[in-house]
Amino acid sequence: MKFLKFFASSVTLDEKFLMFLLCNALSNAYKNSD
Questions:
Q1: What GO MF terms are annotated (predicted)?
Q2: Mean pLDDT of the chain
Q3: CA-CA distance, 25 to 34, in Å (whole number)?
């Protein structure tokens, strides 16, 4: 958990947003493959 907090505080907002978009795209692709 400490590592996660450190990681979260070290990445910028832009990087968090990009990761969010990436996770969204992956989950959408996973749902569509059903």
A1: transferase activity
A2: 84
A3: 15
Q: How many independent structural domains does the chain possess?
A: 1
- pLDDT, position 25: 94
Task: Please list the alpha-helical segments (H only) found in the chain.
Answer: 2-10, 13-32
Copy the structure tokens of residue 32.
């569509």
> CA 20 to CA 22: how far, in whole Å?
5
Can you tell me the distance from the alpha carbon of 31 to that of 24, in angstroms, rounded to the nearest whole number?
11
Token pair for 31? 């749902």
Res 22: pLDDT: 93
- Structure tokens given for 10: 């070290």
Mean per-residue pLDDT, 5-33: 85
